[in-house]
Amino acid sequence: MRIPDWTPALKPQPPDLVDAILKRRGGTLINLDKALLWSEPLARAWNVYLGAVRTGLPTSRKLRELGICTVALLTGAAYEYKHHAPDFLAAGGSQAELDALNALVKADARASAAHPALGAVEQLVIRYAAQMTLDVKVSDDVFEALRKHFDTTELVELTSAIATYNMVARFLVALGVSPEEHAS
User: Fold this and answer.
1) SS (HEC) of 28-86
2) What is the structure's pLDDT at 79?
3) I need a surface site. Which of 47, 54, 57, 109 has the fewest CB within 10 A?
4) H-type helices in 135-175, by residue range?
5) Is pTM beyond 0.70 here?
6) What is the DSSP letter of 110?
7) Count of other CB atoms within 10 angstroms of residue 16
8) What residues of the chain score a pLDDT lower than 70?
9) Are 131 and 142 in contact (CB under 8 A)?
10) 4 burial via Cβ count (<10 Å: 0-12, 13-18, 19+)
11) Between helices 61-75 and 152-175, what is the axis angle to 10°?
């Protein structure tokens, strides 16, 4: 990491903040937390907001994680991919789908995400995430195709997950946050 790992000795933070992050993380701070804890307001808001986006939205977890994995691969955020690929699998995704995603991001997933291992909706989510990540602007044809599969709430939640994890990827990459050695 380009900055020191946060420790209580280097920058004391309120115990309620550290405890809330530990609770959300299952008892262990990850390297991302050790970067965020340099700023109390940022760490506090991030913990609540990212907790909601990651686990609090009713829109398909599998599709949200697919969008997040797309962002991670396109931005070079190895940390993000290492944490979200297992979540995609746990949400019902397959290794064949992840392999297809890896192949597609090496091509131009903005224009086409056609792959036999992926369903039509998965292909659409990958194209959407690729356009959001690389172009910011999303083509009308992709957005109209999304409308056929998602209601307005689902569109907002899927878009929010992809946009949020674009922010996360940029934070991770800029600060050089690397995956934990013990993480699977």
Assistant:
1) CCCHHHHHHCCCHHHHHHHHHHHHHHHHCCCCCHHHHHHHHHHHHHHHCCHHHHHHHHH
2) 96
3) 57
4) 140-147, 152-175
5) yes
6) T
7) 9
8) 182-184
9) yes
10) exposed
11) 30
Closest CA to 36 of 71, 82, 1: 1
Task: Determine the pLDDT at residue 181.
Answer: 81
Residue type present at position 29:
L
Residue type, 58: P
**C-alpha dihedral sign at 156, 158, 159, 164:** positive
Q: Which residue has the tokens 């609770």?
A: 23
Distance in angstroms (rounded) separating the CA atoms of residues 62 and 104 = 18
pLDDT 10s digits, 84-133: 999 999 999 999 999 999 999 999 999 999 999 999 999 999 999 999 99
Residue showing tokens 């970067």: 35
Looking up tokens 């291992």, which residue turns up? 117
Question: Which tokens is 73 given?
Answer: 């691969």
Question: In terms of residues, how long is the chain?
Answer: 184
Q: Return the SS3 of 15.
A: helix
Output the six-digit token pair for 120. Answer: 């039509």
Residue 157 tokens read as: 């939640």
Give residue 110's identity as a one-letter amino acid code. R
